[in-house]
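lol ok so funny story. i was supposed to be doing the assay writeup but got distracted and ended up predicting the structure for this chain instead. priorities right. anyway since i did it might as well share w the group, maybe its usefull for someone
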Amino acid sequence: MIEFLTDLWAFLKVRKKMWLLPIFIVLGLLGGLIVATQQSSLATLIYTLF
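and the output, tada:
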């Protein structure tokens, strides 16, 4: 996983695609939210927030 992130960072830096970084961060957070809601104890808390 660390190697993937290192390669991604190198790609973004060399190709000057820093505008993609916020998109990747938001997608990662949404993916983490989906994984977190699979557990029933967190699902009720998140559903009440939204």
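Helices lie at 2-14, 21-36, 40-49. Residues 44 and 50 are 10 Å apart (CA to CA).
back to the writeup now i swear
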